[in-house]
Amino acid sequence: MSQHPTAAAEAEKTAPPSASRYLDLIASKLAATEERLAQLTASDVPIIRDASEYIFSGGGKRVRPAMLLLCARLLGRNGEAEITYAAVVEMIHNATLIHDDIIDRATMRRGRATVSKVWDNSRTVLLGDWLYTRSMQMALSHDNLEVIRRLCDSIVRMTEGELMALDRLGSIDLGVHEYFEIIDRKTSRLFAAACSIPALIAPTDPKSDEALYDYGHNLGICFQLVDDLLDFTGSEADLGKPVHSDLRGGKLTLPLILALPRIDGRRRTAVEMILEDGAFARAQPEEILEIVETEGTLEEVREMASSYADRACAALEIFPPSETVDALEFAPESVLHRRS
Amino acid sequence: MSQHPTAAAEAEKTAPPSASRYLDLIASKLAATEERLAQLTASDVPIIRDASEYIFSGGGKRVRPAMLLLCARLLGRNGEAEITYAAVVEMIHNATLIHDDIIDRATMRRGRATVSKVWDNSRTVLLGDWLYTRSMQMALSHDNLEVIRRLCDSIVRMTEGELMALDRLGSIDLGVHEYFEIIDRKTSRLFAAACSIPALIAPTDPKSDEALYDYGHNLGICFQLVDDLLDFTGSEADLGKPVHSDLRGGKLTLPLILALPRIDGRRRTAVEMILEDGAFARAQPEEILEIVETEGTLEEVREMASSYADRACAALEIFPPSETVDALEFAPESVLHRRS
After folding, report:
1. ipTM surpasses cut 0.90
2. Which of B12, B180, B186 is nearest to A130 (CA)?
3. What is the tens place of the pLDDT at every residue in B6-30?
4. Are B125 and A102 an interchain contact pair (Cβ–Cβ within 8 Å)?
5. Contact B159/B190 with Cβ under 8 angstroms?
6. pLDDT digit string (tens) for B162-217?
7. Which among A47, A149, A159 is the nearest to B140, CB-wise?
8. Cα dist. A20→A17, A32, B44 in Å?
9. Given 3.40.190.10, 1.20.210.10, 1.10.600.10, 3.40.50.150, which CATH number is that of A18-336?
10. Are the beta carbons of B164 and A45 separated by less than 8 Å?
11. What is residue B193's three-state secondary structure?
């Protein structure tokens, strides 16, 4: 039985906003980005063609392109450049992911075998190099030095963050400050670049640049905090990869960093054993989950993520109300409630 | 007893020109490049600082910076930009090398442990990414889009060449055409970029750009042919790494590619066994050396290298005679006679 039209309209008004409703604003641009991605990764070298197809047909969430395109819409950009840049940030993101998978010895991502599992580590090193440089080469096609600078700056920061994290792998004494230093570089700079790049397209707009950079930066931190939470609370089916992989990889994240100073020696030893073994050999995931639940640090981190979401929204205050501002305000909400 | 001054002067005139005499022309610029390298790789991340120092104090030959600086001198460039770009091409070259060492599982380079041996593969993947992107970030400091484009194009080609080579590793049926396709991308494009970048510095000079690109391109092919010869004929002491490492890595190069169609089944089987084993388990290096010597292909490849050296010099014909042209003409000679 069909609902009464007025009731349906009423229901829509009061229903929580859905991500898809906001993505509709940029649907055609997102579709164009997919086409651009396919164009940019076409190659006469068979392995590049095959691996790129595998990577970009693998159902990534396209969070960074979507953010870039929404910010472009906010500023009234409606050209080819933002489509190229959206494809470029997705290529950069995927270059990082495939190099990360080598480092983490990951065999599954997005529910499929990782690139390094399918093509081996050697080829994956070079495929990542190719993606990084090809993305930069393509970004150059719009002759905008400032955009290239923004992209390079964020990749330099990203690799620095990754190296800092790698250097502290397995350490139980990673502090809160250092954790934030790492995620600031590792994750939030590329978000900040993605969101602010539209302000660098002519006619440039320094005030919007600053606001959108700030927005993306806070959104990125929020995103990473939630990512780290999901490693504790997510399900393998939702994530498309094993849960507790951070801990198994010796990676200490905020929920445990906050809990460690508060727990007794026995429970601390359990954490140490997992970090040392890189496996749940002498202690079980349940023990760790019990720690972060009892100490309430999962909830604390969720609150921190929420406050970064608020800061992201606050950065949007300089823009007059619009459907696009609504969408940008909804993005941190959607990040907070994501399950994968 | 000291020589009579006139006799000494006479001896100098007839002595074969030495590389150092020509390098004197750019000595101060090369020194400035070393300083720039140290500046550009300074970092607040300890591992980046330490690894960079290790990499750039490791006695590389600085062939690409030297070529870039000589070409800059030829065009009368005397600023800061060419010093940055010289440092940048050396950073790019080293990024390639450290990623290559992961792929080749090499443990020695320039007589020392490879970066991947000292810092492990994971860190080396990220260090290479950092070097690539940091070099691009620094190249941007002179606001020259064309230079960035030239650099990106050459790195894209380079990674393509490496991937093509990797895909054909262990194959005995690699043909001459494919071999040249690979070395064209893998080696010669960065040489061509290094030599032609000075023509892209304002005031730009399209005719010089074309000539110097052509020069660098041919020099690069010559360089790679000699590199492949040295793997057969060099000594470990000169090379700073084990000899026959190409073959041991399953890499077929021109001397054997040319010899294979001419040899009998027994000797072909010896080559196949080495490529298959990635080791001299069932056949000895001496057997392979005997093949390329008997078939005269070492000599043939040397002649080919020499003809690329000639082509490089021919590209310089548009420039009026000068000491710098002499130096550029000497470079291919010096590449032909290098022992490491």
Report:
1. yes
2. B186
3. 444 444 444 455 777 888 999 999 9
4. yes
5. no
6. 999 999 999 999 999 999 999 999 999 999 999 999 999 999 999 999 999 999 99
7. A149
8. 9, 17, 42
9. 1.10.600.10
10. yes
11. helix
